[in-house]
Amino acid sequence: MRSVWVAVRVIREISRDRRTLAFFFLAPLVVMTLVYYAIKDDQIVKIGVVTRGAARFFEMDFINTLEMDKDVRMISMPIPDEETDPQTLDRLIRQELAIGGVDGVLYMGEKMITDRFDGREGTLHLYVEGSKPIITSAVFGAIADAMDELAASLPVVIDSSCSSLCADSVNNKPMVLEKHYSYGSDDYRMVDFFLPVLPAFFVFFFTFILSTITFQRERLRGTLERLLVAPVGFYQVIAGYVMGFFTFASLQSIIVVTYILKLIQFDFTWSQTLAFSVVVLLTMLVALNLGLLASFLAHNEFQALQFIPLVILPQIFLADIIWDINGFPMFFRIIAWALPLTHANAAARDIMIRNNPLSNSWMELLILAGFIVVVFTAMTLVAKKKDKSI
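-> structure tokens emitted (390 positions)
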């Protein structure tokens, strides 16, 4: 009976804490919803086709074949039909890849047709952005499936001495696919896409935990109240805690960044490393202030722990660490835009994979700085409200 009495008491205590009840019953539903949208569909890729000369007669054959693939969406390329200069076409195609209008572009030139008439394989040119291995692999797969049917539909001039068996083998000769990468290469590994965003995530994760739990203990032990009794202003106390945590978080960031850079096998420069470190530093400051804010909002260590999955899990699913957020409903895409790691990851990949200067990511840096200001302001307002003696 005593055990029953204890059980009833525990149930009553938990039932009075609405935040704990929400965590137990709503958090699993949110996580399962995110998992569902993350894995429910295959990767949809956007492919464009550009043809010149006699190859235009066979453009629709290739497009129709690709459209039969449910994971392919054909894109009309905004390139003038009269443009035939190879260098200009190369620039225009890469420009469309850079702005994200298309994931892959297949170029079929006049020479491919003449090669087929001469009994040679013929060369198709496939352009890919290349920074996202999952999308790149999906584009290659879709093109490879369609190439065999295209090869069978193209005409070939066969010498009269060639037997019927010979003619069949020539007509079905596979074409050569020449790949053009804006970023990366055939040696670009799947892990190389994820490595640049891991430092920001791990620094965010561990800094948030460090600041949340440690500061919560400081409050429960009464250390904060004793500091406020001393001749030290409120903002000085908060700034002091931020600087103290900043020291350990910075050392941790250096360790994480150094280790990840050792794992990266593609080439990068010192300027990339410096720009990358700036992004990680801003991410760490966001996590530090978020951790202190969560600590002020929590009444005890258990409630402080509840903030960890609440803050971290959305970042894993929605911040473009693993899954492409474009496949999620608009509601989740709006939430993704409001997450600091979304912008940190975009800047990190832009710097490390695309080798763009830090100035190209000025919008992401500005948003991260805005997070720091907003969260620090919210933290001070909540702290003043919680501590009436200030």
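The first helix runs from residue 2 to 16.
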